[in-house]
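Z., the sequence and structure:
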Amino acid sequence: MTPQDYAYLSKLLNERSGLQLAGDKQYLIESRLLPVARQNDCDSISELVTKLKALAEEPLRQRVTEAMTINESFFFRDKTPFDRFQDTVLPHLLTARAASKRIRIWCAACSTGQEPYSLAMMFKQAKEQFAGWHIDILATDISTEVLEKAKSGLYTQFEVQRGLPIQLLLKYFKQDGDQWRLTQELRDMVHFRKHNLLDDFSSLGMFDAIFCRNVMIYFDSKTKQAVLSRIARALVRDGHLLLGAAETVVGFTDLFMPMPEKRGLYVHAKEKEKKPERRFAALSA
């Protein structure tokens, strides 16, 4: 792969997904795109780039973008955001949405679905408090391939062992051959949709909480600012934004402010912190 090939692929990825490749990621491109190259009758990355330039085929460009997108995910990943959701966000919603009994949550860049399904399990664990409520969890990703896997709710033994308490595995999954499939009841709680964070959010509607974790660390400053601005418009005034441990709004927008002593949890800049009023069942219950 020539430096020119690398520059072309880096530019293509940034334009289509917002992700930026550092200057030392040739190995990553080769490991992820060589299979795509061979599937399209190319013997090398250089041949794949030549084909991309010559044909400008949208399906091929999409396959290249999806192959390069980071798809790492596991149940209750990093734990802290889910603790924040349980001790701060859920109590607030239980009180603030008592009249409508409706809650909308968006998991952006959901990958293979472990994050939204983790949230669905949390609501099921708090089923007594949310009896009769309508819970709508929207999960989006740029990759059609990972969305299809997420919709199936089928995970390997390795995947269910990463972060998922054994009690929840036995309660919400059934063995399917040598894999585990999430119960239909939980799968019905999550709606999956293809969406690019670089695109307009208006068609998605408004949300009470937005999870956008471990994706903006790959964006440049301008893209971060634009995405956070669109998130602000999609989040209700008393809503909560949850980012990854290595992400922050500081220096990129004044539309959000961090909640004191609640790492990774943000509210609209003019919204005051509200204390949780009720306790919820433990995840392992």
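The mean pLDDT is 88. The first helix runs from residue 3 to 17.

Let me know what you think.
H.
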